[in-house]
TrEMBL record:
Residues 29-98, 179-228 form the RNA polymerase sigma-70 region domain. Gene3D superfamilies: 1.10.1740.10, 1.20.140.160. This is Sigma-70 family RNA polymerase sigma factor. Keywords: DNA-binding, Sigma factor, Transcription, Transcription regulation. InterPro entries: RNA_pol_sigma-70_dom (IPR014284), RNA_pol_sigma70 (IPR000943), RNA_pol_sigma70_r2 (IPR007627), RNA_pol_sigma70_r4 (IPR007630), RNA_pol_sigma_r2 (IPR013325), RNA_pol_sigma_r3/r4-like (IPR013324). The keyword Acyltransferase does not apply.
């Protein structure tokens, strides 16, 4: 059996979650292990790559399996978290694939709902004094940033026609990741859950025990900060 080897910081998060039910500790663990869960989903997805529409389901089901594992994991049992969680995460992805045909129609509706949620979030600034044109521009840029995040989340989504376009995409991807990592924890978590694991606002609200309106607000704030951070990076590189 693989021995557990937790860093002091991570062990502290598990203790806070298990002993005090600390929701911030749970958020931090989700952020820590979400990239790993996506890699597990990617390993399955590339084996069924002909199902091009399956990636969103794979990523979202991997996140569900991850959160279920976090809620059930006992750090004092002598087993590493990834060893414990891998079976559940993989099982969640495979279960989703078995239902892929039934879920196609639902996925189409979910995409429409996601776009509607994002648009409503970006338009609802809470400031009536903002110029309507500026509000529209901000919304358009925000939707573009969302598309950029989403395109970076899909494995092997880029088909670079030459070395220059590949290099440009790699540079842009690094800039997005850098900017994303600089966001406050909750905003970071919501953008990762929504764009990288394709979780709708209503599911995120349920998982984080907040209102959908609060998720919408933090989504807008996160994209605004991301926009500012990318702008600064571009100016520094000029």
């Amino acid at each position: 059996m693989e021995a557990i080897a937790l860093e002091a910081t991570e062990l502290s998060l598990w203790l806070k979650l298990r002993e005090a039910g600390d929701p911030m500790a749970r958020d931090a663990l989700i952020v820590k292990y979400a990239p790993w869960a996506r890699n597990v989903a990617r390993g399955i997805y590339v084996r069924v790559y002909l199902l091009r529409d399956a990636w969103e389901d794979c990523a979202q089901n991997a996140l569900i399996g991850l959160m279920e594992s976090i809620d059930r994991f006992q750090p004092d049992r002598g087993v590493s978290f990834q060893l414990y969680a891998r079976h559940r995460v993989r099982g969640a992805v495979f279960n989703g694939l078995r239902l892929i045909k039934e879920d196609l129609a639902k996925a189409a509706r979910r995409t429409d709902d996601d776009v509607r949620d994002r648009t409503d979030s970006l338009l609802d600034s809470g400031n009536d004094s903002i110029d309507p044109l500026e509000s529209f521009v901000s919304m358009t840029v925000g939707l573009g940033l969302g598309y950029l995040l989403e395109s970076n989340s899909v494995p092997d989504s880029a088909e670079a026609s030459d070395a220059y376009s590949f290099l440009e995409r790699e540079q842009l991807s690094r800039a997005v990741v850098t900017a994303l990592d600089q966001l406050p924890e909750r905003e970071h978590l919501i953008l990762v859950m929504h764009y990288f694991h394709h979780a709708p606002f209503v599911q995120i609200a349920d998982e984080l025990k907040v209102t959908k309106g609060r998720v919408s607000q933090l989504h807008r704030q996160g994209l605004n900060r991301l926009r500012e951070s990318l702008g600064k990076q571009m100016n520094e590189n000029l």
